[in-house]
Amino acid sequence: MPLRETCCSVCDFILEYDTPRIVLIKNKKVGLINRLVQLVILSYIIGWVLIWRKGYQDFDSIVSSVIIKVKGVAFVNSSGFGERLWDSADYIIPPEVNNIINNNPIAHSSVCVLTGKCVTFNEGVKTCEVLAWCPLESQTVFPNPALLGGAENFTVLIKNNIRFPQFNFSKRNILPNISASYLKTCVFNRTKEPYCPIFRLGDIVRETGDKFQELALQGGVIGILIKWNCNLDRSASECVPQYTFQRLDNRNVDETVSPGYNFRYAKYYENSAGKETRTLIKAYGIRFEVEVFGKAGKFNIIPTMISIGSGIALLGMGTVLCDMIILHLLKKRNYYKEKKYKYVEDYERVSP
Amino acid sequence: MPLRETCCSVCDFILEYDTPRIVLIKNKKVGLINRLVQLVILSYIIGWVLIWRKGYQDFDSIVSSVIIKVKGVAFVNSSGFGERLWDSADYIIPPEVNNIINNNPIAHSSVCVLTGKCVTFNEGVKTCEVLAWCPLESQTVFPNPALLGGAENFTVLIKNNIRFPQFNFSKRNILPNISASYLKTCVFNRTKEPYCPIFRLGDIVRETGDKFQELALQGGVIGILIKWNCNLDRSASECVPQYTFQRLDNRNVDETVSPGYNFRYAKYYENSAGKETRTLIKAYGIRFEVEVFGKAGKFNIIPTMISIGSGIALLGMGTVLCDMIILHLLKKRNYYKEKKYKYVEDYERVSP
Amino acid sequence: MPLRETCCSVCDFILEYDTPRIVLIKNKKVGLINRLVQLVILSYIIGWVLIWRKGYQDFDSIVSSVIIKVKGVAFVNSSGFGERLWDSADYIIPPEVNNIINNNPIAHSSVCVLTGKCVTFNEGVKTCEVLAWCPLESQTVFPNPALLGGAENFTVLIKNNIRFPQFNFSKRNILPNISASYLKTCVFNRTKEPYCPIFRLGDIVRETGDKFQELALQGGVIGILIKWNCNLDRSASECVPQYTFQRLDNRNVDETVSPGYNFRYAKYYENSAGKETRTLIKAYGIRFEVEVFGKAGKFNIIPTMISIGSGIALLGMGTVLCDMIILHLLKKRNYYKEKKYKYVEDYERVSP
């Protein structure tokens, strides 16, 4: 026997099976507590971590691109511009940006001529010697009602293309089962048409809790939020966008500097006399921003094993708790201590 | 001895070493099964979690900025515009956006004069009483061949600057070993010049599986995807971009509403008679979108320890499995049960 | 007794408590080593993982929108344009983009007339037969000093709205305690006014280590980085933005192709003779890009339990280490081996 141990301790190590010696205590109370604790931990791991919070999944964040098309025509009769029909080429500024619509009910414009005889530096925006027919830019007056109040009925088509690069998954917000004929007539409605990618501007503003006609006066920024939370372990057809709308600027006009939303831009031309002329436009508008966010989950062995592994370790907590009860709280603690522990004295102390 | 235990049970607790008593069973089959299970779990933890999937790393997502420069001149002879040379200032709309090139072979333009006598509201885009020389916007006809078919040979220089803020790491896609002279001549080629940041538009479209001349007709959206997957535990010079190209809009023209890619914009001027005039342009174009994504990994003690910790817990699975075999499946199960378990009856039951 | 075991082994299993039998070794050295290892692991788990690195938190990444307003007027006397006042409508190109300011000290402009008699294809940008008064675009000369050197004193108001969708938390960089009157006068200062969202362009450039007047010559790209690292377990008022500024393009002019930052764009008009004319502008400018990044952490039971679970498993490492010492390194190793292990021979070998 000593020979075998010496010559082949490696074989021995491989072929031996070591398992902890267990003390089985027939005590109903403690047994019940132990099983209860184990049950709680097990249902936490299986029910909560693995099933409910999808602890078996790895997650990837979204990569997205957005294209926007606005449709709608409004008839405007203003003192500044006269009677005029405004179409999308007029009120979308700039004409083509990837995720922003500036639906601009242009409200205040002034025509200036650069005479070259500039007046002294002012803090304001009076940049040129003013000619008689050149109205100064007014700082406070904005037209009421808004010029493009009719924009309430404009519709916007949002084409959103998303990808989860880690899972090599891509999808469009125009779902595969949506036909071209459906797209030509549908309008988004939270309950009836939740997947129609065409939105009425008035509906968007109404869902944020604002009124279009009031918002159009001073302008504002509204977020069109598209959420893609996808469980890629299920069918790809269940990965659908969720649309919500949210006011992004501060609603409380009194509290903020430069309330609402407006910006200035200029159009330049030479007038018939050959002088460089510009039209300075201060546009009050509603800016619609499309924000795409979300994540996708898919089964992955690593988070699964980490969840299970740490769950197994937590199961040991039941034993720790019950050991404390048995060894310190019960009357029979000394009896149990004797059974659980095998005391080993130090060599020196034992032998003599 | 009882005195010492009483007066200094804390010292005792600190200076005692408690280790589980182990039952060593010399059974070749079970021993082998136990070692095999442990080997599988160990190689999973070390090989798969730690080495292959870099479970020892913490990850950060990318922050990126992109600048684009397009070069190329095309000679166009069209009935609408006459003979004309188009350069980047003509065909890039808008002139300067951070991550988008709208390479727009302008295809359909119509000149309208706002007479002020606007016709009644139509759903369409006929916005003004049409004069003889003002062609109505045609909804269906687009020029064939595309005006800017020559854009196939245009090149685009993409300057991409990325950062991983958590690791304080930043890099450019113009790699440090690329010289200015190389940049002046190189063109991206997947096999020969994979790190040249200058792309021929025709090459980009070809890699998506489309044909430039066909795509240019109705327009489309093409993604230039730049992937930065960096292992920051290695040399920074191994952190390089990977370029791929992908069609982002729906290729199938029949199935979609508003197929391809186009948008309208208007240029305004006063004509010589002083009337406000606009040129409405419906531009069919190829829109190139640059999407930068990726992540960086770097050694971090926390995920390392979590991986190792849950791995150790999983190692216990081997014992659980082999215990089940030994105590329930083997013929000698009662013999082993006796050895593994020490039965402790309740006080009351034992004493009488 | 055998009857009861047979008829109700499930009850038995539930009501029994099994706890490992422990060998208590009274050896000061090993006991101390064991406690030390446990102490190190415990303080790592509690101190480092849980408290310092917030291992009890789940993290969400940021969704953000940005609006920019620039204020400032500069008087310029150049040979190209004559005396002229430039305001934001002149120098911001394009007028409205969500997260970019192109503050463009326009530096080089040339007026061309498209004669229609286009010259043969050149690689360059000479796109039209040049008239006497049409200066050729010069490739190398840029004006010195920069036209809009006065832009140093321009200020930019950044309105940044962020959301952490997973935690349903949103905030603005105009903090709630900032009053409208304060906003009208404040200018960002790292030490004195770290939360004022109004920045002087000169200050921004100075913090990147560049000089505004030098940078304005050839142009450049500067990132305005807004970091939101929020601990949502604390008060929402402690979730504040941190501003930093960073040069994004390559500072070293010699090493790079197309150094600095510039772009071309054209303005089109008909001249009095009815010919289509364009002004081609090559703008050297400083491009300011706003990049928002960060993450929010909030208590979540799952990462907490995973941290604790794998920590408990790591605690077992102390026992493994000390077992190795006791069973292999100490002189008394055979004595301890005998105590720790209970050898169980195979049936066949034992019985005969």
From TrEMBL, chains A, B, C:
Gene Ontology biological process terms, A to Z: calcium ion transmembrane transport; response to ATP
Which GO terms fall under molecular function for this chain's record? ATP binding; extracellularly ATP-gated monoatomic cation channel activity; purinergic nucleotide receptor activity
Q: One Pfam family this chain carries?
A: P2X_receptor
Residues annotated as glycosylated: 153
Got any disulfides in this one, which pairs?
Answer: 186-196, 230-239
GO CC aspect terms: lysosomal membrane; plasma membrane; postsynapse
**Is Cell wall biogenesis/degradation among this UniProt entry's keywords?**
no
Q: Which InterPro entries match?
A: P2X4_purnocptor, P2X_extracellular_dom_sf, P2X_purnocptor, P2X_receptor, P2X_RECEPTOR_CS
PROSITE patterns annotated for this entry? P2X_RECEPTOR
Topologically, how does it sit relative to the membrane? Answer: Multi-pass membrane protein
| Family per similarity comment | Belongs to the P2X receptor family.
According to its UniProt entry, what is the function of this protein? Receptor for ATP that acts as a ligand-gated ion channel.
Q: What is this protein called?
A: P2X purinoceptor
Gene name, please? p2rx4a
